Amino acid sequence: MKKMSNIYESAANTLGIFNSPCLTKVELRVACKGISDRDALSKPDPCVILKMQSHGQWFEVDRTEVIRTCINPVYSKLFTVDFYFEEVQRLRFEVHDISSNHNGLKEADFLGGMECTLGQIVSQRKLSKSLLKHGNTAGKSSITVIAEELSGNDDYVELAFNARKLDDKDFFSKSDPFLEIFRMNDDATQQLVHRTEVVMNNLSPAWKSFKVSVNSLCSGDPDRRLKCIVWDWDSNGKHDFIGEFTSTFKEMRGAMEGKQVQWECINPKYKAKKKNYK
């Protein structure tokens, strides 16, 4: 394994904002609820942009992926930042509706923003606030930011998944599958770790490899349960469930040792109805 610092360049160091020693690296996860758009006939394509303040000006640090046709997005993209205990690090999270025709912000609709300090997020671990638009609340929309300290474990792992003979959910074409990986937490909640790209019209997809920190994947515990769900993507945002399986990083690590690692991707409803279902 390599160190994450070789992969993720610190935003604070990039901007040259702070001189005091870094206390720790922090991963920030973002989700929104109830996002509204000017166009009531369609759902927005939201993206969250993280900005950091320096000398009274805001600089873009990073941005999430765009999630198409969604009012309650949960983002797979993590923000990795350095936390300086003795510094006030002001952050701004902006939500923009970025259509499929462009990825720039000039033509994108601003859906709301939230300002706070990194210290507030780290101390509370989970910070939820209403989105503000031009000084007023943006309807009932809100944003939640979860902080996780890397705690000295900044190793990362590269994973790649493929599937064979997935269930076909489309009538006139093959399914458009994508994979989501969730970490099962000690409090019985689950946390999205990664969402792959969509592979169109393919029942045996090979998704692109991706890098993830061991802390994010399993909180440093190789035996922690991971839940993996395969969906059939739909343009209206109502994706069809294909199947699921559970695993651990310990099992996945077998592939790194040259072993063939595979799981049955099961739809429990179909399995209960059909004795020979696989």
From TrEMBL:
<dbReference type="InterPro" id="IPR037768">
    <property type="entry name" value="C2B_Copine"/>
</dbReference>
<dbReference type="InterPro" id="IPR035892">
    <property type="entry name" value="C2_domain_sf"/>
</dbReference>
<dbReference type="InterPro" id="IPR045052">
    <property type="entry name" value="Copine"/>
</dbReference>
<protein>
    <submittedName>
        <fullName>Copine IV</fullName>
    </submittedName>
</protein>
<keyword id="KW-0106">Calcium</keyword>
<dbReference type="GO" id="GO:0046872">
    <property type="term" value="F:metal ion binding"/>
</dbReference>
<feature type="domain" description="C2">
    <location>
        <begin position="137"/>
        <end position="264"/>
    </location>
</feature>
<keyword id="KW-0677">Repeat</keyword>
<dbReference type="Pfam" id="PF00168">
    <property type="entry name" value="C2"/>
</dbReference>
<dbReference type="InterPro" id="IPR000008">
    <property type="entry name" value="C2_dom"/>
</dbReference>
<feature type="domain" description="C2">
    <location>
        <begin position="3"/>
        <end position="131"/>
    </location>
</feature>
<comment type="similarity">
    <text>Belongs to the copine family.</text>
</comment>
<keyword id="KW-0479">Metal-binding</keyword>
<dbReference type="GO" id="GO:0005544">
    <property type="term" value="F:calcium-dependent phospholipid binding"/>
</dbReference>
